[in-house]
TrEMBL record, chain A:
<feature type="transmembrane region" description="Helical">
    <location>
        <begin position="138"/>
        <end position="158"/>
    </location>
</feature>
<feature type="transmembrane region" description="Helical">
    <location>
        <begin position="70"/>
        <end position="96"/>
    </location>
</feature>
<dbReference type="Pfam" id="PF00528">
    <property type="entry name" value="BPD_transp_1"/>
</dbReference>
<keyword id="KW-0472">Membrane</keyword>
<feature type="transmembrane region" description="Helical">
    <location>
        <begin position="239"/>
        <end position="260"/>
    </location>
</feature>
<dbReference type="InterPro" id="IPR035906">
    <property type="entry name" value="MetI-like_sf"/>
</dbReference>
<keyword id="KW-1133">Transmembrane helix</keyword>
<keyword id="KW-0813">Transport</keyword>
<dbReference type="GO" id="GO:0055085">
    <property type="term" value="P:transmembrane transport"/>
</dbReference>
TrEMBL record, chain C:
<feature type="transmembrane region" description="Helical">
    <location>
        <begin position="234"/>
        <end position="258"/>
    </location>
</feature>
<keyword id="KW-0813">Transport</keyword>
<dbReference type="InterPro" id="IPR035906">
    <property type="entry name" value="MetI-like_sf"/>
</dbReference>
<feature type="transmembrane region" description="Helical">
    <location>
        <begin position="110"/>
        <end position="132"/>
    </location>
</feature>
<keyword id="KW-1133">Transmembrane helix</keyword>
<feature type="transmembrane region" description="Helical">
    <location>
        <begin position="81"/>
        <end position="103"/>
    </location>
</feature>
<dbReference type="GO" id="GO:0005886">
    <property type="term" value="C:plasma membrane"/>
</dbReference>
<keyword id="KW-0472">Membrane</keyword>
<dbReference type="InterPro" id="IPR000515">
    <property type="entry name" value="MetI-like"/>
</dbReference>
């Protein structure tokens, strides 16, 4: 019985899928036939044709994968450490509500600080970390991403740990539950959806800060840096190839997040 | 256009000796909802017949799923009918909606949180294109009517639930409608606030002489307020009885303790079918 | 005694203590680095050194002090960021409006709007510069794009979040489409619109500074790059770090103030 509804292919859901696909194909055709260039006033040099961009991606496979690895490692590493750190800060703020909440308002202020201000500082700070330029650059970049992700997670974790359903805390009290039990049985499960709210912000943000911190890094590697280097060398087609790759990373990571959210939050709401 | 500032005409005592005209006629009304899975349509209302006179206070009473709200929404043209006729002073629901002849009060106050109380009450008159001077005059009168004179400049979130519902009533009456449609307006309020609003609603009704259709699932509330209680039963939604409430008016709160009142409550309760 | 306790436990006091704590950590770090590095001002100077560099009268490039350079270039960057922000906000609101008015357009554009959120737009800054070939235009365009989609998605969410009863009330009053937008949908979407603005205001500034670093000319980012390459005093870099942090935070609170000015009921909500 339930399956029937899924399979029913009515006009509404058909257009929901078809319209954007048609639009996308139309855009690609405009681009390939250079009509888009006339609209934007660009030439095929700065805005190469999609076919050429794809060819470059296939031709430079190994190099591109090398750069993707560097960027993804920074983004995922920073995301991981930042989220854990942020969650811990959320827990600390919950345990010490008065001082913690004030600290979180500082954290939210820090999240408005441009990444560009943070990235060069950390580059300088981590100069002594390792003798290998690549390793210390990685370290600096990961810290930048960590900082960006910490703010989003700490604020949302604090909300998740404290915005409990009415009476649920009273219920716990009526069981004479310890603070620890309240955390394990109530606060932490309650915060799971909020973790995903934070991740929806910090997954794209982690990639952006990874790309931008690559601009300032000592060692030349990473998708973001390649975009910039290739433009400096006027190799626009290669730069575009890296942009396409950067977009793909963004979409795939967000897709993974949505899939994880769907699996973990099943049955909630 | 209705003259909304002629308060003498609007608030004059009704001569009780005059016969009341029939205002709303509902004949063989049926409303079906299409089934989401493409199965048989769900019958929300089946073959409803009802006549309502001008100035009557009618309650539509029943458990959930009996179609009482659907009936109100169909009269308000918020819901399509499947068959049958509804005529309000010879007009269809669509026509009376377009002529802005009825005011509606929902269960939740749906006030515009960015507007002050005064400007909330003012809103429907803005849609009617009333001159500003008339609007201001009428808003003041309406706030006086619902007893919120001092709260005009407050914002909805600063008011209690009962006060919000008063603003809601004032807003519904702002366009000087012929009919007031109320969909479980007090069911979210506490008992004390509710009793106060019952008294106030009856006072407003007697002063303005409107026809009121009042949807509720509370038997006592229906009996206390109404001239007639229309009892609806579910599966399918239908009218199972119409009970005349011949209690004298005005009705003080103490009336709820009288034997006559309780006898009518029992009579209404016994007229449900298949619950 | 109670008075003192009250002041000590107030919200501002908590924030103040935190700020003091952060300053302390910074100063401790600076002291450690002072003892271990050859040129500590490149890594972490003392705060008073940065402050001193703001008020010094020493000319850095013959005509301007370090702070004058930062301010004049800051003005250029902020102006471009501001123009881009206003254009982006306007376009974002308009797009949300059009999407809400025409269902096919919503269906076409919604997936793409969602996709933009996942794409690192800032990474595309160099290519925008390559296409427009003009640093000022690219600043404005990147700031506009970054402003545009949070505003569009949030405003659209605002339109969609209006309760069914409010729509029915307008319907019962036979309100026209124009009236429904003017009296109901636009006012109730305003808080969402401002959520979009609060997200994008700091982003627009980040974007404008980043675009500066891509090319010479003028702007905060340009002098920041020069300073990092030691073409001029390193304190310009530190001043920019603090200035951009302050502007980023202020831009957020500017949006909060603007919202309270436009929607007075919000002001009363927060006690």
């Amino acid at each position: 019985m339930k399956k029937k509804r899924y399979l029913r292919w009515d006009k509404q859901s058909a257009t929901t899928v078809l319209y954007p696909v048609i639009f996308g194909i139309l855009l690609l055709i405009l681009w390939q036939t250079q009509l888009l260039h006339k609209l934007l006033g660009a030439d095929t040099f700065a805005l190469p044709l999609p076919g050429r961009i794809l060819r470059i991606i296939f031709d430079n496979g190994p190099t591109i994968i090398e750069n993707i690895k560097a960027t993804v490692m920074v983004a995922v590493g920073g995301l991981f450490f930042g989220s854990i750190l942020g969650y811990l800060l959320g827990i600390i703020a919950t345990v010490f509500p008065k001082w913690g909440a004030g600290g979180l308002s500082i954290a939210s202020a820090i999240s408005a600080v441009p990444i560009i201000a943070i990235a060069p500082i950390l580059n300088n700070l981590t100069k002594d970390f390792s003798d290998v330029a690549n390793v210390r650059s990685m370290f600096a970049k990961t810290i930048v991403v960590t900082i960006t992700c910490t703010a989003a997670m700490s604020i949302n974790a604090y909300r998740g740990l404290n915005e409990l359903k009415p009476y649920s805390l009273d219920l716990m009290k009526s069981y004479a539950a310890s603070k620890l039990t309240v955390f394990l049985k109530l606060r932490i499960p309650n915060s799971v959806p909020y973790i995903f709210v934070a991740l929806r912000v910090s997954v794209p943000a982690s990639i952006i800060s990874a790309l931008v911190s690559e601009y300032f890094a000592e060692f030349i590697i990473g998708v973001g840096r390649q975009i910039r280097e290739n433009i400096v060398l006027a190799q626009y087609a290669t730069a575009w190839a890296y942009i396409v790759v950067a977009c793909a990373i963004g979409i795939i990571m967000y897709g993974i997040l949505l899939a994880a959210e769907g699996a973990l939050l099943k049955g909630r709401k | 256009m209705v003259n909304v500032v002629n308060f003498e005409e609007e608030f004059k005592e009704r001569d009780a000796s005059l016969p009341r005209e029939t205002e709303i006629i509902i004949e063989n009304l049926s409303v079906n909802f299409p089934d989401k899975d493409g199965g048989e349509p769900i019958v929300a209302l089946s073959n409803v017949n009802l006549e309502i006179k001008q100035g009557e206070f009618i309650s539509l009473l029943g458990p959930s799923g009996c179609g009482k709200t659907t009936l109100l929404r169909t009269i308000a043209d918020l819901q399509e009918k499947s068959s049958g006729t509804i005529s309000v002073r010879g007009l269809s629901p669509r026509e009376i909606r377009l002529q802005k002849k009825y005011g509606i009060v929902f269960q939740s106050p749906v006030l515009y949180e960015w507007r002050s109380v005064r400007r909330n009450v003012c809103m429907p008159m803005e849609l009617l294109g009333m001159p500003k001077k008339d609007r201001t005059k009428r808003v003041t009168k309406m706030l006086e009517l619902v007893g919120l004179m001092e709260f005009g400049e407050k914002y909805p979130h600063e008011l209690s639930g009962g006060m919000q519902q008063r603003v809601n009533i004032a807003r519904a009456l702002a366009i000087r409608p012929e009919i007031l449609l109320m969909d479980e307006p007090f069911s979210a309020l506490d008992e004390f606030t509710k009793e106060k609003l019952h008294e106030d609603l009856l006072r407003i009704w007697q002063r303005t002489n409107k026809t009121i259709l009042f949807v509720t699932h509370n038997i006592q509330e229906a009996v206390f307020l109404s001239d007639r209680v229309v009892v609806l039963s579910p599966h399918p939604g239908r009218v199972s009885a119409i009970v005349d409430i011949d209690l004298p008016r005005p009705r003080p709160i103490q009336m709820k303790e009288t034997q006559e009142f309780n006898a009518l409550v029992s009579k209404v309760r016994n007229s449900f079918e298949g619950v | 005694m109670i008075q003192i306790k009250k002041i000590l436990s107030s919200k501002y006091m908590v924030t103040l203590v935190w700020v003091l704590g952060l300053i302390l950590i910074w100063e401790l770090g600076a002291t450690v680095i002072e003892g271990t590095k050859r040129s500590p001002e490149n890594v972490l100077p003392h705060l008073h050194q940065i402050l001193a560099s703001v008020f010094t009268t020493n000319k850095v490039n013959g005509t301007q002090t370090a702070f004058q350079i930062v301010l004049s270039n800051g003005g250029i960057t902020l102006l471009r960021a501001g123009i881009g922000f206003v254009i982006g906000a306007g376009l974002g609101f308009l797009l949300a409006l059009i999407m809400n008015l025409f269902l096919p357009i919503e269906k076409i554009l919604f997936p793409y709007l969602m996709m933009i959120q996942m794409i690192p737009i800032l990474g595309m800054a160099p290519i925008v510069l390559a296409i427009t070939k003009d640093i000022n235009k690219s600043r404005i365009i990147i700031a506009a794009i970054l402003t545009f989609y949070p505003v569009a998605t949030n405003t659209l969410a605002g339109f969609k979040s209006v309760e069914k009863e409010k729509h029915e009330l307008m319907y019962s009053l036979a309100a026209s489409k124009f009236e429904i937008y003017r009296k109901l949908l636009i006012p109730s979407s305003l808080p969402y619109f401002f959520t979009g603005l609060k997200i994008s205001a700091p982003m627009a500034i980040t974007a404008a500074i980043l675009v500066d670093t891509l090319q010479g000319g003028a702007g905060l980012g340009t002098v920041l790059s020069q300073s990092l390459k030691h073409a001029t005093t390193i304190y310009i870099f530190w001043q920019i770090v603090f200035l951009s942090a302050i502007i980023g935070i202020l831009s957020f609170y500017l949006m909060v103030l603007l919202e309270q000015a436009i929607s007075p009921y919000k002001r009363k909500k927060k006690k």
